Amino acid sequence: MLKKLEVQNFKNFEHVVLDFGNVGEYNFNEEIIKNGIISRSLVLGQNASGKSNIGLAIFDIVIHLTDKNKKLKDYNNYLNYNLKNLKSAEFCYTFKFNDDEVKYEYKKIESEVVIEEKLFINNELCLEYNKEKNIIQLKIERYVNNFENFNTEFSVEDFENISLLKYVKGNTLLIKNGILEKFFNFVDNMLWIRSLQEGNSYMGYRNGSQNIMKSIIEADKVKDFEKFLKKFEINQKLVQNDEEIFVEFENGKKVRFYEIASSGTKILALLFLWMEVTIKNVSFLFIDEFDAYFHYKLSRAILENLLKSDKIKQLGLSSHSTALIDNEILRPDCYFILNNKGNVKQLSEISNQKLEEYHNIEKMYRAEVFDYE
């Protein structure tokens, strides 16, 4: 699981830390904590505070380590232009797999151009690449099979267009169930979704595009989709042909689903496609502005549905709705508050008092009880 991410000089962030290993001492909603790591989190902030950029920061690793679907246009204006003395963005990821820990640091000047990278496994430096200092170092023998057959006769110029770590991934046989394989499997199975009206907009996990309605039909999930909508009080009779799903009215008239679906209902269709048809085992799911077109009651119902999914190891969502700040849903350490200066802190960090389960933390937040500038 992703334990911690530290980022510098990326988009609107001069320096930001997401610490999912910073677990508070709460005796409620304890199932959210897995192996000492927060597995369910919600990023909240005002408009233009950088909530979407938090998701992009988390998924930056997907850009250069995988061949999965990417949203490169979202990574334009890559650097923070306020920091004129820094010429690159810096990322430091810490992952935890059972008792093992992997730390991966790198610097980029653009989304696909890595100029430095280091990989530590249980505090041991296993890989280093530094273009400027002409450094290439590998100590990965214990994590791959037949390392003696791996070609190590290369120079820094060979990695202008590919990271050294990705090269290792593609040219070695990783030890099955070993720590390096677990690391790559985690990154390969990360999924980012933007739930706005852009169709099926995603990054990571897989490749290619899907027609939402046709994919639901091909998976024989139309009736399941109808039941899914009813869970959210959308009562429609759905029928199909080979290509389309229709809403059938009491008078027998049939209308294409998308012709009468609201913005929120279209997003529910997208979520159903991913949650019930496409994904099998997602390591980290981030949904950007997941409730953009939902009223509070529906937002809460969808959130509770996502929180219970056993297909998702780790979940992050962004929202601007303070109505979702509730100890019945999550815990204070699961709410990451982003201020207009691009800083992030957990709700549990910015309280001057111990927060208990019975506290109305939304009311406290709206009353500006929490000290966070």
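The above is record 1. Record 2 follows with the same two-line structure.
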Amino acid sequence: MSDSPSVIFTAYATGILALIGLCQIFILISQRTQLRLDWAETYRKRWGEIRIDWSKVIYFGHSSGDYYQIATAEVISEIDRMKTERKNTTREIWALEPTIRVFTELNDICLRIMQGHLRIGDTYPILGTEFLRQSAAMRNLLDYEYSSRQGNWGDKEHVDVQRSIRTWLVCHDGIRRRCLILIDMLWAEAVRLEDLPPDDIRSAANAKIHTGKERKKRLKEEVIRLNGYFSIIRALSLSYFLQHSEYKVNKYSRGIDAVRLKELEDKWVKRYLEE
């Protein structure tokens, strides 16, 4: 009986310590969440500051004279004037300035995701579907193999600008790789949320039948290269996230359901045609 008070005291002390431990865990989680939100807000502001630069990069990524542009008529006129008036070396340097700012920023965002400072879901609202709808133009600059398959044609000045941008990206291959990885991750998030036209989802999923494994491997290797082998769980988690943009392997796996996609397409066409 004499031991009862000490046992009760020990039990209370243990309970208090456990409660303190839980409070510390909640505080750490809250601090981590707030830090992520702060990073997201920082990148939101920085992306807003370079949107005109991004519109120029998209112009460079398209073939000369393409109808679909996001740059204003004033910006396009400025670009066309610079292309024709400046000498080759000066023109290429002028074109590289917005390119470096945009792709360096995208690289920085990708690094934050791979380091665990940001989640894909934090970044997606910053860039969104407007960014992804122009992903072909960005891939045209980032991926020479993609560019060669597109069979780009255009005036010599425009082609020379594209070539100078690709050369810079080849010389900064880490930035080039991580920008492609960021596009892949954001595309997977957009497919998961059903934010893209069904035909775009299907076209990309068909391509990923052949390229999906390589893209996931590239992402895993990049995360491990950046953070070391102790980041293998994060590497596997992020690479598996890309499965959202691929067809399901079976009915229980993550990915695109072909039947669901067909239903979405039928509804999308009716809304588009206002039937």
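Residues 36-273 form one domain.
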